[in-house]
Amino acid sequence: xxxxxxxxxxxxxxxxxxxxxxxxxxxxxxxxxxxxxxxxxxxxxxxxxxxxxxxxxxxxxxxxxxxxxxxxxxxxxxxxxxxxxxxxxxxxxxxxxxxxxxxxxxxxxxxxxxxxxxxxxxxxxxxxxxxxxxxxxxxxxxxxxxxxxxxxxxxxxxxxxxxxxxxxx
Length: 169
Hints:
- This protein is mainly beta.
- Helix content is about 5%, strand content about 50%.
- The chain has one helix and eight strands.
C-alpha cells in the first residue's frame, strides 16, 4: 500500500493531441517534490509530465527503530506505486489535498519491469505519526513503462531526492 498524496484528476482520454512519451523523457523532469511516507515526484516545468513514486512505511520504520537511515530495494512493479502521467497541469497534483485548476490527464504509464532503491534518513529526534521529517532518495533503474494502449517507453535511470514525512492538509 502506498500514498498517492493527490486527489482524483479530471481525465481527458483523447490522446490525439498527446503523442506520448519518448525515450529520454526523464531529462525534462527537472522539478521535484516530496511528502508523506514516502511520496516522491518529478515533473517538467510546464507540468506536462509527472513521474510519481510511492512506498508506504519506511520513514515510520526508521523512526520506530531509531535507524540512522534505511534502504529498501524494490523490484517493479511490486508493492510500490510508480506511474508517469502526461497532460495539462500535472504538476498541481502531487502533495496537494486541495487541487484547483484545469488538470487533464491524457496518458498514464505504469511499470512493467525495473528496479527502485529507496533510502530514507530521519532528520529530527522528535516525531509524530503525521510529522516525520526525513530526507528521501529513490533511484529508478531500467524501468519499462506501458500506457493503456500498449505504447512502451524505457527509463534508464532517474534519481529523485527531496524531504518527506509531512502530510498535506
